[in-house]
Amino acid sequence: AQSVTQPDIHITVSEGASLELRCNYSYGATPYLFWYVQSPGQGLQLLLKYFSGDTLVQGIKGFEAEFKRSQSSFNLRKPSVHWSDAAEYFCAVGRGGADGLTFGKGTHLIIQP
Amino acid sequence: DGGITQSPKYLFRKEGQNVTLSCEQNLNHDAMYWYRQDPGQGLRLIYYSQIVNDFQKGDIAEGYSVSREKKESFPLTVTSAQKNPTAFYLCASRRGTGELFFGEGSRLTVL
Prior knowledge:
The complex is a heterodimer. By secondary structure, chain A is mainly beta.
């Protein structure tokens, strides 16, 4: 069965500092991988996705993620965070099938001034 | 603009009542989904539908029901059999390449 692990429940970063959110997955085949962001009381917005090809993918709002097959990881990074990046971040895995995506439990990002 | 509309945004229910959450999309997507979100639990799949008049149970379908009479609409009913219905409910549709697009969510509180 597929699964997603986000090891960090909470992360606190100073504004302007770099960010890395971790995501590890378990999947039987080459997965499609996604990062979503959720502001409080809102729906999820897609940040970026990986299907195949270049293992470093660029997304919206200055985010990027790197797919590492050997480590079963798809970590999200941003060189310099802004206070508006404070939110919940979810990693998800799937294969484009009808049963949708499997989500991790999320990482809550706190930005310190 | 294309998107997914969920209503109501907030809903209160007395114990023993059924309630229905609305989800409408104008993205022309075939597949639609309902997820439940609880603090610290991520998103858990309740039901999904690939086409009109067809739907499948997800991981936590007990106490819920759905219908898919139109491509655009996928309402979720939270029945009185759902023992702990207080949660945030998210509806989504799937693009052909696999990513999901989400509505703004509906928060259900049992009084």
